[in-house]
């Protein structure tokens, strides 16, 4: 499986991406990070859940945490 990262740069120079260490973002400049989601285990359903940053909605769930991480990368990267 090939790893990839999408880094979108706005006209004002602001970059947006789902964080990964595939690109050394520290080499580009100062970073400000905000969570796109949280992945947490739900004991009641025995599944991992991808939650909104506020943790008020479930975006996706699966028994495998790695499946949730793959979903997060596929669906929350900037276009």
How would you sum up this structure, described in words?
The chain has one domain. It is built from 2 helices and 5 strands; from the N terminus they run ββαβββα. The chain has helices spanning 25-28, 65-76, and strands at residues 8-9, 15-16, 38-42, 47-51, 58-62. Strands 3-4-5 form a 3-stranded antiparallel β-sheet, with helices on one face. Strand 3 (38-42) and strand 4 form a beta hairpin. The longest helix has 12 residues, at 65-76. The model has no long low-confidence stretch (mean pLDDT 88).
Q: Give the C-alpha Rg.
A: 14 Å
Class by helix and strand content?
alpha+beta
Strand content: 15-25%
Shape label: elongated
| Euclidean distance between termini CA atoms | 21 Å
Strand order in the sheet with the most strands: 3-4-5
- Major β-sheet profile: 3 strands, antiparallel
Order of helices and strands: EEHEEEH
């Amino acid at each position: 499986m090939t790893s990839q990262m999408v880094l979108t740069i706005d006209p004002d120079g602001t970059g947006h991406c789902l964080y990964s260490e595939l690109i050394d973002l520290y080499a580009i400049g100062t970073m400000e990070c905000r969570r796109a989601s949280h992945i947490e285990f739900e004991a009641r359903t025995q599944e991992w859940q991808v939650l909104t940053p506020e943790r008020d909605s479930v975006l996706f769930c699966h028994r495998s945490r790695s499946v949730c991480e793959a979903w997060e990368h596929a669906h929350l990267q900037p276009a």
